[in-house]
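Running this now, will post back.
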Amino acid sequence: MSQLDEIAARTDAATEGPWRALGTGSAGGDHWYICDDGEAIASISCQDGINEEQRQPDAEFIAHAREDVPRLVSALRAVEAVLVDWDKFGKQCLVRADPSSGLPDAERAHQQEMAEDCARDAHRIRTAITKALG
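Update: finished.
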């Protein structure tokens, strides 16, 4: 299972959204709740009065993650699909670059160059995605 598959599985297992962040707002002991339509599913709370200004952005981040993460997974799946098509195109270029294709030398050289460009660029994109996912 790829890291993207693992992220998608955790996303699918989580409570359905949308989620929202609701706060009590009481200084020195504020509580922030991450809620779906029916109830609180998580909370951020502390009684120490320290770093209170960070709790709301944290709660908002968690609440929005329920919709943001599936969008990001979907976007990466779309990129992966384009890369598959790119690989197919590169292989077609290699076939046309073969001397048995009957194409003129200049056209075969161009097809070879396009195949190499496809392979190089697809590798760069896949490497960047793998690196970003850790």
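Helices lie at 3-13, 52-97, 105-133. More later if anyone needs it.
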